[in-house]
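Page 47, continued from p. 46.
Same chain as before, 388 aa.
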Amino acid sequence: MPNYTTDLSFNFNNPTKIVFGIGAINDIGPEVDGLNKKRAVIITDEGLAATGIIDRIKELLGKRCVGIFSEVKPDTGVYIIDRGVKYAKGLDADILISVGGGSSIDTAKAMAILLTEGGRLEDYQGWQILKRPLIPHIAVPTTAGTGSEVTYVAVVKEHDRGIKLVFGDNHLIPNTAILDPELTINLPPDITASTGMDALSHAIESMHSLQRQPMTDGLALQAIRMIFNYLSVCVENGKDIAARGQMQIAATMAGIAFSNAQLGIVHAMAHAVGARFGVPHGVANAILLPYGMEYNMDICGDEYAMIAEAAGIDIHKKTKREAAEMAVFAVKRLTEEIGLPTRLRDVNVTKDGFAACAENAMADPSIVYNPRTPSGTEDILKLLEKAW
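Result:
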């Protein structure tokens, strides 16, 4: 059983309305109406804008849609946010609808800050700085991984400095998340794999975070079960709409879990490596997750044994340590099974950037919640070396 402290107390927050089901996107017009808004701007990327998904959403919105901002890029940047804000202001938008992966959703979150508060985005970096509700935001994820549709976090890259800015505030949580498995069936296998491992990292780090609690454990463990059952299926057959739906739910559950429990050393390193070397976030998490688990294993044996069981491993007659090691092995095996790289050297990460990555990881907010406090950058460097 998990080792909760005897003086356990916690807050649990999930204000997002979740609309799930095949064809759930058909409810988007009524959801806008339910928020009493009339002038929606869709936030998406160039690739999605060229597909039928955006045309369909625009048609469903009818006169409610006043524009489409389609300049989102992977690892969305401050300059993209500024362009989006200018565009939405020019159309007098009163609600944002993000369609896409985490970059589109995070772009809309960051745009909401400036559309409501003005100023420079960098001024709002940090935790719980915002003082009032933002312009409403409906998130329509087309991947199953980031959980950004239900989280209080947005990550934006400052490309000039090669760092990622992290914003954490309850006012950033989208009002509504529409989860429609049909919107994910054309997601390529590699993106399906990497976003799925992002979700698994959220769930596992929720389980070892210092701020974990029974409610987040329940969500995280169920997400882990679902990911181990369905991620490989989605990678092998993207048209399996039932499996796609299960992965969407799992990613959202993991998002709710980590939004309340927080993360840890894996995400701190992944943010740093991703910012410096352009490694996709899910891929960075997939590579680094086993090493972060090994780093925390002496403290998190109970939790990792539960993770092993959720991953479908028979831990009967196994010691706590053996079960925890089996959980780490299961993560490595799943990463290989879905065809993702398992070493930093395989994604063009070079050792000459390790020192800067270690420093940035130590400064990352996620590191605060890791159950084992690094003694300094030396600990991070050792983990990067192992992952290389």
